[in-house]
Every structure is written in structure tokens, then in C-alpha cells.
Design goal:
Strand content: 15-25%
CATH topology of the largest domain: Rossmann fold
Radius of gyration: 29 Å
Helix content: 25-40%
Largest sheet: 6 strands, parallel
Strand order of the largest sheet: 2-1-3-4-5-11
């Protein structure tokens, strides 16, 4: 008798769904039409990827819900990167001293970078910074491009801006001073002395602190209803040569101003030299007021009336904020503006 074939077991009532295999870097690269190396660069926050390509790769990663591998905490050097647009002045030295005080107390070194006057780091800077693995980065009178900012954030390298050259997002930690008030109190001082023809030699026209000081200068005039001659408002670069050049142009004319507010102490020193070369007495023939209160301002002849911008305090506050961020301590506020104060010395007096 032939045995009946065995009856197969019934299929499961709820078959387990086939799980799609997780996306790989190669999957993303094939879909976007780029190399695996390019996808890897995007994942690692490298800057040398075109913005359009980066956006397509990021969109594909999100679409596939690509899970970035949890990286080991990166090995970081015990140093802070301090990036200046330019640091060949006493102003810059005051910033360096303020940062160095905090860094030394914490046992941390400094790496200085100068951008040769540019207000944004070049493209290769970000790769060099990522290779150094600093605890964080301080930017002085300069700012990051959006891809550079994103690269630092992806690598969990915090950054703080000191005395910004442009408006920053509320998410960017920033330490500065009240530049509008500084321009206001400097100009009020000259107006209260009786000056009515006051010239301004501000900093670069596209730099935020220069704009704020100029706005304070204009507000002080508006309070008294005193007009400002357009040709008395000049823009320099915060350095001595600009103060001298503009000073010569303003003072070597029959309707010269009786007072000059220079947007920095260095420019004010250039004005003092121009006045001496033209045989003008300061403050008898001309009052001069500077900005920053760098140490040498108390040693010029005559000593310089100026606006005290607490540069060392700004720098040390920013450095401490950066160290807190490196320790995952969120600051109570993302923007700190320190107080500016007038320091009256010998270079200002009532007009004759």
C-alpha cells in the first residue's frame, strides 16, 4: 500500500515583513550620481564639496534615514584657535592678552591665525582647523560662511565671535561692546564743549561696529538739531595711516573742523600727527577724541581723550564662554555687550 505524501504545514498567518537592507554610502553615492568619497566628505563635514552636491547628498541621506555611525569622541588638542582679520595693532594685542589670561589659567594653548585683512576665512582654513581638532575657535572681526559653520557644528567644535564685523544669528555666541553708545558719548562730549563743526573718521563702512559708532555720532547731533556736513564724515580702516590721510584732507582747508572723532585710537594718533604737521595746536586749535583706550593713548602728546572699550574683558569673557561650550555648558545668553565709557584726557577742550 502506497503511503500518502506528507501534508506540508500551513503558511504562517502573519508572515514577518521583509526588512529592506539599510542604505550604505555606496547606495547613496549611486542614487545621487557621485563618488563614495564625496558622500564620505559630506558625512565628515568637509568643506571641499559644492553646495548643490552637498544638498543632494544630504537629501538622499535623509530620504533613506541613513544612520550616521556613532563616532568615538575625537581627540582634541588642548588649544583654542584665535582667528583675526588682522592683528598688527595694540588693539589686537589687548584681545590676545585677554584670551591668553583665561587660556593660561585653564592650561590651554593658543593657535593664532591672521586673515590678511579679510573678514572671512578662506576655504582651506576649515580643513586645517578640523585637522588640528581645537577645543574651540574664537573669531575676531570676522565671520564664517554657512558651509564652514556647518562643518564646525558637525564636528562639535564650538565657536564664539568677538566684536563682530557683521550681524550674527541669535544662535551664534557673540561678545562685543555697545558701539552705538560709544559713538554717542564721544560726540556728546565734543558738543557739550561747544564744538559745532565736528568731523568723523570712522572705520570701514561695511563693518558693523563702524556703522554703530557712526549712528551714535549722528544721534548726538540730532538730539541738538545740529546738521552734519556730508563731507565731514569719512571712513578709514582703524589704522594710523588712514587717520593721518583723512586728517590732512580735513585740516588743510579754510573751513576745517574744530574737532575730530576718530573711530579708533590708532586713527586718532594719525590725526594728531597731521595736526602737528600743519602747525595746529591740540586742543587749542583742534580737539581730538579716539576710541578703544589702548594703553598708548595715555602716553600721546597730548594724552588722548577716548572711549574705553573693555577689550581684555571682551576677550576673556568670550574665551570663558568658549570653554563652557566645549564642556557642553550652554551660556545663559548668546549675545553679551559690555559697557563703553568716556575717558577724558588732554586732547579735548572748548573751541577758541
Amino acid at each position: 500500500m502506497t503511503e500518502a505524501p506528507p501534508i506540508p504545514p500551513p503558511p504562517p498567518t502573519n508572515p514577518a515583513p521583509v526588512q529592506p537592507s539599510p542604505a550604505t554610502i555606496a547606495t547613496i553615492a549611486d542614487e545621487v550620481g557621485v563618488s563614495v568619497t564625496t558622500v564620505s566628505k559630506v558625512l565628515n563635514g568637509r568643506s571641499d564639496v559644492a553646495p548643490q552636491t552637498r544638498a543632494r547628498v544630504e537629501a538622499s541621506l535623509a530620504r533613506h534615514q541613513y544612520r550616521r555611525r556613532a563616532r568615538r569622541p575625537p581627540i582634541r588638542h588642548d588649544q583654542i584657535d584665535l582667528v583675526f582679520h588682522q592683528f598688527d595693532s595694540q588693539w589686537a594685542m589687548e584681545i590676545i592678552r585677554g584670551v591668553e589670561t583665561v587660556a593660561r589659567a585653564a592650561g590651554i594653548g593658543l593657535h593664532l591665525t591672521q586673515l590678511q585683512g579679510r573678514h572671512s576665512p578662506p576655504a582651506q582654513w576649515i580643513d586645517e582647523a578640523l585637522a588640528r581638532r581645537p577645543l574651540g575657535v574664537l573669531f575676531v572681526l570676522c565671520h564664517l560662511s554657512e558651509p564652514q559653520r556647518r562643518s564646525l557644528e558637525q564636528q562639535r567644535i564650538p565657536f564664539v565671535v568677538i566684536d563682530t564685523d557683521s550681524a550674527t544669528s541669535a544662535l551664534v555666541p557673540t561678545v562685543g561692546s555697545n558701539n552705538w553708545n560709544g559713538g554717542l558719548i564721544a560726540t556728546r562730549h565734543l558738543l557739550q564743549l561747544g564744538h559745532r563743526r565736528i568731523a568723523l573718521i570712522s572705520g570701514p563702512q561695511d563693518v558693523l561696529c563702524s556703522q554703530a559708532r557712526t549712528a551714535g555720532f549722528r544721534s548726538a547731533h540730532e538730539e541738538l538739531g545740529i546738521p552734519i556736513a556730508a563731507d565731514l564724515v569719512r571712513h578709514g580702516d582703524f589704522y594710523v595711516d588712514a587717520g593721518f590721510a583723512h586728517g590732512m584732507a580735513l585740516l588743510d582747508r579754510p573751513d576745517r573742523p574744530t574737532a575730530i572723532f576718530a573711530g579708533s585710537d590708532m586713527q586718532a594718533m594719525g590725526v594728531l600727527r597731521a595736526a602737528r604737521q600743519l602747525g595746529l595746536d591740540v586742543p587749542g586749535d583742534l580737539s581730538v577724541i579716539g576710541y578703544d583706550n589702548v594703553p598708548v593713548a595715555a602716553w600721546t602728546v597730548p594724552t588722548l581723550t577716548t572711549v574705553n572699550q573693555p577689550l581684555r574683558d571682551m576677550a576673556s569673557t568670550a574665551a570663558q564662554m568658549l570653554l563652557d561650550l566645549a564642556r557642553d555648558v550652554d551660556p545663559p545668553t548668546s549675545r553679551i555687550d559690555l559697557v563703553t565709557e568716556l575717558v577724558i584726557r588732554e586732547s579735548t577742550a572748548p573751541p577758541r
